[in-house]
C-alpha cells in the first residue's frame, strides 16, 4: 500500500513568503481601477526575461496557491508568474483587463497554465483575443463549458445582497467532506485559509463569472502545443466534463494523475511540476542546460577557493594526516563535478553528431532525387 508523506505546506509556504515578494500593477479597465497582485520569480535573467509561464487560479484561489511550482520551476531557470486577478463581473471585462496586464509585463513569449476555472479563463482569453504571444497552453482539471455550473449561481442579480460569510460557506461546501488522503487534506486546509482571506467583491465576482452560461468556441490553436492534466480523484468537476477539454484538442498531450484532488498543485506538486517541465521542453523552452553549466562553473570556483584556504589554514593548525584527509575530500568532490561536466559536454557533442548525420542523409537523398 502506498504511503503518503505530509507536504508540510504551512512550513514551506512560510519560508517561501520570506524569500519572494508579491508585486502589484494598477490599471484602468472600463473606467475602473483594477489592481493585479502577482509573484514574478525569474530563473535566468539573461535567458528567460522575454519568456514566461503565467499561472491562473480558479474560483477559490490567490497567487499563493502556485508557490510550489514557482520554487520548483525557478530553480530550473524558468520565469514563473502567478497571477491573482482583481474582481471582474463579466468574462469580456476579464479578457480586456488580462490583455492590458500582459501588455504591461512586456513579455514576448507566454505559456499559460490554468487550474479549474483558471483553465476556462485561459481558453476564453485566447478565444476572444487570439494573442500571438501565447506559445502553449496547460489546462488542469478544467472544462470547456459553464452551463452545468449555472445552478451554482442561483442568486443571479441578487448576489449583491448576499453576505460574504454565506458566499464563503457556499464555496467551502464544494470541498471534499469525506476522509481523504493526507496530502489532499493538507491542500484543502491550505485552500480553506485562502478562501477565508477573500473579500466580498472577489468572491461575488468570481461566482458570477463562473455561474454565467457560456461555452468555449473552437479556435485556431495547434493541439500539439496543449497539455491537458486531470486528477482521477477530482471532486468538484465531474470527470466526463473535464475529459471534454481533451476532446477539444484531439492531438494534445493528455496526462492523468492518480491522486491530487481538486488542488493537485498543492497535494501532488512533484507530478504536476514534472508535467509542466516536460510540456515547456516540448515547446522549445529549456533553460536547464545553461543553468547546469553555470552551476558547475560556480561550484568549481568555490572548490578551488576552499582548496587554497583549507591548505593554508591546515598547515598552521592541522597535522599532516588531517591535511591529506581534506585534500582527498576536495579532490573527490572536484572529480565528481568534472565528471558531470564532461558528461554534459559529451551529450552536447552526441547531439551535434546526430544533427550532422541527419543533414548528410538528407543531402544524399536530395542528390539521389536529382539523379533520378
From TrEMBL:
Residues 52-178 form the AB hydrolase-1 domain. Its main location: cytoplasm. InterPro entries: AB_hydrolase_1, AB_hydrolase_fold, Maspardin. Residues 306-320 have a biased composition (Low complexity). Keywords: Cytoplasm. Transmembrane segments: none annotated. It is found in: Cytoplasm. Pfam families: Abhydrolase_1. Residues 306-372 are annotated as: Disordered. Residues 352-372 have a biased composition (Basic and acidic residues). It comes from the Eukaryota. PANTHER family: ACID CLUSTER PROTEIN 33, MASPARDIN. This is Maspardin. It comes from Anaeramoeba flamelloides.
Amino acid at each position: 500500500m502506498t504511503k503518503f508523506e505530509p507536504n508540510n505546506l504551512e512550513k514551506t509556504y512560510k519560508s517561501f513568503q520570506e524569500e519572494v515578494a508579491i508585486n502589484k500593477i494598477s490599471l484602468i479597465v472600463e473606467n475602473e481601477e483594477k489592481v493585479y497582485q502577482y509573484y514574478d520569480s525569474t530563473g535566468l535573467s539573461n535567458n528567460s526575461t522575454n519568456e514566461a509561464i503565467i499561472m491562473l487560479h480558479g474560483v477559490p484561489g490567490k497567487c499563493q496557491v502556485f508557490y510550489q511550482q514557482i520554487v520548483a520551476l525557478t530553480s530550473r531557470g524558468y520565469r514563473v508568474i502567478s497571477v491573482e486577478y482583481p474582481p471582474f463581473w463579466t468574462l469580456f471585462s476579464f479578457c480586456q483587463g488580462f490583455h492590458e496586464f500582459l501588455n504591461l509585463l512586456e513579455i514576448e513569449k507566454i505559456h499559460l497554465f490554468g487550474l479549474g476555472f483558471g483553465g476556462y479563463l485561459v481558453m476564453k482569453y485566447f478565444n476572444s483575443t487570439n494573442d500571438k504571444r501565447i506559445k502553449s497552453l496547460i489546462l488542469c482539471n478544467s472544462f470547456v463549458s459553464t452551463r452545468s455550473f449555472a445552478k451554482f449561481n442561483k442568486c443571479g442579480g441578487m448576489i449583491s445582497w448576499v453576505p460574504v460569510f454565506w458566499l464563503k460557506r457556499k464555496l467551502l461546501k464544494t470541498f471534499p467532506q469525506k476522509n481523504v488522503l493526507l496530502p489532499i487534506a493538507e491542500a484543502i486546509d491550505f485552500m480553506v485559509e485562502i478562501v477565508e482571506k477573500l473579500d466580498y467583491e472577489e468572491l461575488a465576482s468570481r461566482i458570477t463569472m463562473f455561474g454565467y452560461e457560456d461555452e468555449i468556441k473552437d479556435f485556431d490553436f495547434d493541439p500539439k502545443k496543449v497539455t491537458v492534466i486531470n486528477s482521477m480523484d477530482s471532486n468538484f468537476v465531474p470527470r466526463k466534463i473535464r475529459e471534454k477539454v481533451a476532446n477539444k484538442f484531439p492531438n494534445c498531450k493528455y496526462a492523468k494523475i492518480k491522486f491530487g484532488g481538486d488542488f493537485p498543485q498543492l497535494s501532488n506538486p512533484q507530478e504536476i511540476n514534472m508535467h509542466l517541465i516536460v510540456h515547456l521542453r516540448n515547446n522549445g523552452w529549456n533553460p536547464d542546460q545553461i543553468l547546469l553549466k553555470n552551476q558547475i562553473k560556480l561550484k568549481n570556483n568555490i572548490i578551488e577557493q576552499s582548496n587554497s584556504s583549507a591548505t593554508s589554514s591546515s598547515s598552521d593548525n592541522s597535522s599532516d594526516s588531517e591535511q591529506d584527509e581534506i585534500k582527498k575530500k576536495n579532490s573527490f568532490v572536484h572529480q565528481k563535478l568534472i565528471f558531470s561536466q564532461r558528461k554534459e559536454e559529451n551529450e552536447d557533442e552526441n547531439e551535434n553528431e546526430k544533427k550532422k548525420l541527419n543533414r548528410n542523409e538528407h543531402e544524399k537523398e536530395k542528390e539521389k532525387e536529382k539523379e533520378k
